[in-house]
Amino acid sequence: MPGIDKLPIEETLEDSPQTRSLLGVFEEDATAISNYMNQLYQAMHRIYDAQNELSAATHLTSKLLKEYEKQRFPLGGDDEVMSSTLQQFSKVIDELSSCHAVLSTQLADAMMFPITQFKERDLKEILTLKEVFQIASNDHDAAIHRYSRLSKKRENDKAKYEVTEDVYTSRKKQHQTMMHYFCSLNTLQYKKKIALLEPLLGYMQAQISFFKMGSENLNEQLEEFLTNIGTSVQNVRREMDSDVETMQQTIEDLEIASDPLYVPDPDPMKFPVNRNLTRKAGYLNARNKTGLVSSTWDRQFYFTQGGNLMSQARGDVAGGLAMDIDNCSVMAVDCEDRRYCFQITSFDGKKSSILQAESKKDHEEWICTINNISKQIYLSENPEETAARVNQSALEAVTPSPSFQQRHESLRPVGQSRPSTARTSSSGSLGSESTNLAALSLDSLVAPDTPIQFDIISPVCEDQPGQGKASGQGGRRTNPFGESGRGTRSETEDSILHQLFIVRFLGSMEVKSDDNPDVVYETMRQILAARAIHNIFRMTESHLLVTCDCLKLIDPQTQVTRLTFPLPSVVLYATHQENKRLFGFVLRTSGGRSESHLSSVCYIFESNNEGEKICDSVGLAKQIALHAELDRRASEKQKEIERVKEKQQKELSKQKQIEKDLEEQSRLIAASSRPNQASSEGQFVVLSSSQSEESDLGEEGKKRESEA
């Protein structure tokens, strides 16, 4: 006969909703078998009880056998074979119903005994195991609920031990009961065939032995058919015995192997955390807010499917989408009085969910898995190998390595000596040192033993004397009404460019070079690696305001300016080559580690897929600032030219006035010389007062000319 569907005993410990749904199908099948077998038992019992109604009872049996093909058994994988077999039996029984008589003893031994055993023993065993399993499942859920409510702040060793022991006992009881229950349901599929075929076979054999005159109806062809059915029943029985033995062995092996897994929080030394997973499934407690401050926790089965996090309640046939975890952020959080909580935030920041894992191992594995999925590692050909390489790169990124001098002294020829000022002079000329920079390791871009700063407080506020004024404005709240307390306007109000972006601060560190985008990529790699190694998932969200004067980090809640970066000090900015959400810029500041020279600090941020837009905006701001500076210089030069022209014009006007005065004085002198000539000839000329004044002025003009 064709193979029979079976419940997977290996998945009883996981107890997933899929397993429960499959169990519901088997339970429904058992109920259908029980209903059908009760009808068949009543029909055969009528044959046994009343010989006078033998013909009617046989007819009813034939009718029921004909209706078998109309039954809808959920696990009716062999319905065609069984239907054809029972149809053949129905025809023969219907033909023999008019002349058929069965002795009570033969019917009791050959027909009633097998079906009675199946009804009274096998079906009742299924019902009993179902009740026991339901009780064990409820006890396990109650124990898990009490364990999940253990206080993290007020830990009681005695209470924790009692709850843990309760979870261990209830889980073991549920697992064992569930395995035996699955075994009985799987065995029922074989017993169903035996309970259907064996009574019929006994009934027919009793008829053959009882009726001497049955040779007309019971021909050799029918005997051959019955022989084949008997052989099939024996084969089914042997297959059932073999399968039962295999299942019993599987149960014993699983009981031994699963004993450590009954503990809700296993030993991490025996069961290490796997950080390379790209798929995970298991039960989690999800927090649902019921009010402003109140919330409830629901236990559901969660599993990852591609870039989606799916949830499925017990009893559901399929799971539903809980959240899109592509490009999401995940971090461990302290939530109320529960342990092992973590928060998932969607890529746009509009949706977040807080979940609670059952153990520390599950807690870390869920965070690592979601983090790997967020990086879209699952799209590669070998996701686990890719995740392993990424994690290994993260480990190597924070592993102590030889210093820059030691690593590159080994690459130099023996006879070549390196001047002590080679590093400082290499940053001065770009053309001659560009080829050498490509040959150096990326470690030369970052200062050795440089600490990484993960919070929003950065050296821009403390170590930069030139930015004292800008940093002093960091605590001033932006006035929403456009007014100022001192009557002066903000510098950014006059800016042509105002662009606002949502960013999350990842970290900052001091760098050696600020003329190569590789320094930004290397800083990104080291900061992300350090966050992954140290399990730092918290990020401060801010609003980045890009203007033509500066870059500002503004608190989205209070609108207070956290940091101000002068735009001329931003000497380099770049986006990650693969992950366009990451971007960074290098700020050239005075001071730092050494007060004698300028230092450079690289700041790394994460945006909502706007890294390139932010870099383009910063570039546009710098271009606008450059053009504004050029226009200012041109305007100043034009004003200087106008001032020179105005001065020359004044000098020219003054010179013309002097010439005019000289001409007037010459005319007066000429006029004054005429009366002197007349008086010398004995003639007298009376001068008016005006003429006398003009003569006086003429004399003064002569004196001035002589002095000149």
Automatic annotation (TrEMBL):
Its subcellular locations are: Cell projection, Ruffle; Cytoplasmic vesicle, Phagosome; Early endosome membrane; Nucleus
**Family annotation (InterPro entries):** AH/BAR_dom_sf, BAR_dom, DP13A/B, DP13A_BAR, PH-like_dom_sf, PH_domain, PH_DP13A/B, PTB/PI_dom
Q: Which residues form the PH domain?
A: 277-375
Q: Name one GO biological process term.
A: insulin receptor signaling pathway
One Gene Ontology term of the molecular function aspect: identical protein binding
- Which residue intervals make up region (Disordered)? 397-433, 459-492, 645-708
Instruction: Give the protein's recorded name.
Output: DCC-interacting protein 13-alpha
